[in-house]
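Course assignment 3, question 2. Fill in each field.
Student: A.L.
Task: Predict the tertiary structure for the chain below.
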Amino acid sequence: MNSQPRFTEKSYLVIFAFVTSLFLLWGLAHSMSDVLNKHFQTVLSVTKSQSGLIQLSVFGAYAVMSIPAGMFMKRFGYKAGVLLGLSLFATGTFLFVPAATENSFGYFRFALFIMGCGMATLETVAHPFIAALGDQRTSDRRINFSQSFNALGTVIGPLLGSYFLLRATGEQHDLSAVRSLYVGIGLVIAAVAISFSFVKVPALADPHEGDVLEGGIPGKPLFGHRHFVWAVVAQFFNVAAQGGTWAFFINYGHEVMGFSDEKAGNLMALFMAMMVLGRFVGTYLMKFIAPNKLLATFATGSILMCIIVAQGWGWTSYIALLMINFFFSIMFPTIFSLGLKSLGGHTQRAASFITMGVVGGAFFPLLMGMVANHNVAQSYYLPIICYLVIFLFGYKLYKVRA
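Answer field:
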């Protein structure tokens, strides 16, 4: 092994670019779901807690699909896993057509569930895929870099949603706008799938396979690796915090700051841009600061920001709300990469379980919605519990133990 391992190999650049584009696609879809919360509250007359069922539909799919996706990937390989994920993703978007025709919140939730199955498959495959495109010692940086484009997708999503949905709400009260938007997204996803089918993916040796490094024990069962188990727990609470924080961002802007729905939706793009900035800054800082230490530091920043947001202090709290996403930025990819360390042949299966931890985002918006029905600002106290768990993982529980 080289003393200074490369970020990735030149022969992997085309594949790396394609797989990184997948991070952008599911980032866009996740943030679009948060715009749907406010849109359906208006058009379908659902409450905040009921609109939280959108996140239950999307993130709940991760509980159902992550393990089968991991098994499929192990049997048929990375490329087949990507194509399966893109196919399910596109199918879910096209199901918005009958959902809009029936004017049914339940049908929309089913379409979102199928989309979620596709996204769960892509996330299960893409993280170990990116890890396989180079040395294990640079896997943290590669995953954080690719996740930066996931964050870019979350910037594009609110802009599209605000323009096509929240702006349209004032002009029409049917669901033609949401139908047209998701069909367009589905066509793009289908085009990516067709293009990727022509890409030749060589046989890849996962850098986590083979020798078990840094204190691991060959032959040790997967759930005998404590750092992996805690990574699943940390990811559950991480995405729980994400789901709740994002779901009621527009409500916060409307109710606490007095913004119109469209303006609050457009500002969500700035909210997501803070995550893009955080991911690039975090990727750079990891050249000098151990990933676990940076994770604990950012978790502390998120806790402080949540306390300020919950006070409802006008622009001071709103800026703190924007900063939550800056500090949130590195959490998902860093937890993922730390959880995969030194797992040998368990790596692909482990990726399935860590991805399944995303189901935390299915339940937390419901809890925050119950508080937000009375006071949306004070609902931001709840994510502090999640960030405390993440802090503990970065501070101590990440360690690989013999």
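Instructor remarks: Residues 211-216 have pLDDT under 50 and may be disordered. The chain has one domain: 10-397.
Grade: pending
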